[in-house]
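Final report, Chapter 2: Outcomes

The project's central promise was a pipeline that accepts a single protein chain and returns its three-dimensional structure in a standardized token representation, suitable for archiving and comparison. That pipeline is now operational. To close this chapter, we reproduce one record exactly as it appears in the project archive, with the input sequence first and the structure output second.
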Amino acid sequence: MINLKQILNSFWIKFKKIISKMILITNYHINNIISHFNQKLFKLFFKRKLYNIKSLFAFNVDLRKQDGAYGWLNYIIPNINKYSNYNFKNLEDINFKHYHDYKIERLLIFFPQSLGYEISSKLIKSSRKIIFFVNDNVMFCKRSYNTAFNKECLKCLPKYNPYNSCDHFPYPSKDSSYIDFISTLKSKSKSILFVCHSSSHVKIINSIFPISKIFKSKHISPTFKSIKVKKNKIYKYDFLFHAHMLQSKGYFYFLKLAKANLNLKFYMPDYDLLKNFFYKNIIFDRKNWSNGLQEIIYETKIILCTSFWSANFEGSVLKTMLMGKCCAIIKNTNSFSMDIPNNSIIKLSGNLIKDSNLLKKRLKNNTEIEKMGKNARIWAMKYIQNNPKKEIKVLDNFLKC
């Protein structure tokens, strides 16, 4: 039942999202104007300088976050600092300016969207050896999460040819900047080692950059090994959606499943005021990993992680499996889901009728649900077994060639 607090929170969250997007777009255009002005001014009064940088780690994300790719970054950075033979500086350490020239021996780059495609292109062009940590599908998709019309989209995989409705995500940009970024990756591909987390992405990268090198590494987060199994015989909910409220993450498909199964109980750990009025079998309540989401997952029979994009990895899927829970995903031929055995996870087709029937059939057998959860835990525990010293040695060997 919706209450006043939820209504106010829902409006406040939507308001913050709108303001945040407006600020991002405004800042992007202001920074572009300032950068262009500075470059013109610099050319008039100063001589361009060449800076020699030996080893640089370029990223611009908040390391206090532990979810998804951020969690993996919190794993890889300390291990690079500990085991690498090279001493990597961060971007802020070199006081990077776009109007200067740089000669970089070794570049490690992560999440180029947050850096900006202009800066990312300049850094890659200026580098002798590049390690590109693959977080999403920015290598061929301007939206990063390659979906269109509520399904996986590979329209730009052979050649950049987006739909008119495609926008840049998660940061604003110009098409010209993105196209230059893609061209830069292709022209420098012989000098790039792509680090990815799934066999499907090895194939994707090979198809785009056939002369580049690829290292398939596991997606590890410092929080994963602390996740425990908790047996629960009393279930309050049938399904829980474990992802962000994005079309690419399958949120709208989750709503369709709820609408098609009105007699079943669904849980959405976030607020959606409008949907709350129409979907009486969904409980909307804002929860996260630190304030009760884990407990609710334990109290749910099947966890839905219904992403439609070609995911390189899914942190929510790994967390769910490590908890020993039965998880359902979309079977995308170009995603992380292909690496997970069928006895450890439910693989949905994306067909609403077929998926509804399959899920209802699984709900009837708690023993089967719990068995799949056990298999999921076993597979996920093997997956997160890591050897950071060996991983960093692979990176170092590429960089010294």
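Archive annotation: The chain has two domains: 48-220+386-400, 225-383.
This record, like all others produced under the grant, will remain available to the consortium after the project formally closes.
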